[in-house]
Amino acid sequence: MTRLVVLVVLLVILAFGASVGYFNAQPVIFNYLFGTAEFPLIAVLIAAFSIGIVLTIAAVSSRLFSMRLELGRLRKQLREAEGELRTLRNLPVGTTSETR
Asked: 49-66 burial, b if ≥16 CB within 10 A, otherwise e?
């Protein structure tokens, strides 16, 4: 049942993409830094979408890398604290001869 729903959703997305591509096939003039060129509108849309995906992945990856470094540091700190706690638990309890 789940595979059927996924297949239907993918087919709907594919049909929507095909219709967007069909209705946006007219050429447009694209002005970029070093000149101009004429491309189909759908190609410009796909290129802009792809560049957005790449930039998003780059931004998320850099944040993920820094968070993994922090996680490693915190795990090391936790291991050290657990070792210290184990050491403190193994110390004998001292008796005092103080009277109050």
From this structure: eeeeeeeeeeeeeeeeee
Q: Angle at Cα 50 formed by Cα 43 and Cα 44, nearest 5°?
A: 20
Are 44 and 30 in contact, with CB atoms under 8 Å apart? yes
Both tokens of 86, joined, read: 């184990």
Instruction: Return d(Cα 34, Cα 56) in angstroms, integer.
Output: 25
The model's pLDDT over 40-96, given as tens digits with 9 standing for 90+, comes to 988 888 899 999 999 999 999 989 999 999 999 999 999 999 999 999 888 888 766
Residue range(s) defining the domain that contains residue 75 = 43-83
Instruction: Specify if 90 maps to a domain.
Output: no
| Contact criterion met (CB below 8 Å) for 40 and 24 | yes
Kindly state whether residue 61 falls inside one of the protein's structural domains: yes
Q: Residue 35 region, left (φ>0) first, then alpha (ψ -120 to 50), else beta?
A: left
pTM of the predicted structure, to 2 decimals: 0.57
